[in-house]
């Protein structure tokens, strides 16, 4: 199994977070597992994701979390998929925690903005005039 985007999730490993350094190998055919040659720890391909230690396939969990995120009530998912409400809530909670970690790691880091585009829109409503302002980092398309 090719593992170009896998890195060691061990917090004590000096190679943690390093991708493509050649320190990650794979073993296990039915359930892929990886090992780090620096610290010697093995880990699952799902480690550090909302799918870790879940027996349901990733596509089904993704579908259910997407439905909840778009406003589908949990009892409807319970009736359609046959999952217990507590299971669905656990999946949504795990996905939320993972998204928060990604947000902190990718969005909230200080960065050199280089080029920023700013724009504003003036809206006239019955309640009065409203202004909407927005800024966008050009290189990453990140809304500021």
How would you portray this structure in words?
With 144 residues, the protein is of the alpha+beta class. The chain has helices at 58-69, 74-81, 85-106; strands at residues 24-27, 33-36, 42-44, 116-125, 128-137, 142-143. A three-stranded antiparallel β-sheet has the order 1-2-3, with no helix packed on it. The protein has a three-stranded antiparallel β-sheet with strand order 4-5-6, with no helix packed on it. Strand 5 (128-137) and strand 6 (142-143) form a beta hairpin. The longest helix is centred in the middle third of the chain and has 22 residues, at 85-106. The protein is flat. The two termini are 38 Å apart. The model has no long low-confidence stretch (mean pLDDT 86).
Draw up the topology in text.
Layout: E1 24-27, E2 33-36, E3 42-44, H1 58-69, H2 74-81, H3 85-106, E4 116-125, E5 128-137, E6 142-143
Antiparallel strand pairs: 1-2, 2-3, 4-5, 5-6
- Count all strands and give the number: 6
**Class from secondary-structure proportions:** alpha+beta
**How are strands sequenced across the largest beta sheet?**
1-2-3
Task: Quickly count the helices.
Answer: 3
Q: Span from first to last CA?
A: 38 Å
Task: Quote the average pLDDT.
Answer: 86
Biggest pleated-sheet summary: 3 strands, antiparallel
**Helix share, percent:** 25-40%
**Residue runs with pLDDT of under 50 for 5 or more positions:** none
Q: From the alpha-carbon coordinates, what is the Rg to the nearest angstrom?
A: 21 Å
Tertiary shape = flat
Series of H and E elements = EEEHHHEEE
- Strand proportion: 15-25%
């Amino acid at each position: 199994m090719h593992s170009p985007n896998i890195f060691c999730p061990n917090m004590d490993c000096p190679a943690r977070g390093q991708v493509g350094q050649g320190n990650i190998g794979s073993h296990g055919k039915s359930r892929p597992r990886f090992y780090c040659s620096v610290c010697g720890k093995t880990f699952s391909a799902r480690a550090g994701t909302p799918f870790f230690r879940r027996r349901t396939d990733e596509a089904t969990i993704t579908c259910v979390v997407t439905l909840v995120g778009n406003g589908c009530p949990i009892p409807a998912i319970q009736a359609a998929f046959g999952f217990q409400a507590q299971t669905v809530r656990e999946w949504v909670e795990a996905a939320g925690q993972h998204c928060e970690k990604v947000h902190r790691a990718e969005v909230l880091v200080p960065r050199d903005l280089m080029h920023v585009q700013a724009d504003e829109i003036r809206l006239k409503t019955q309640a009065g005039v409203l202004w909407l302002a927005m800024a966008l980092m050009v290189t990453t398309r990140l809304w500021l």
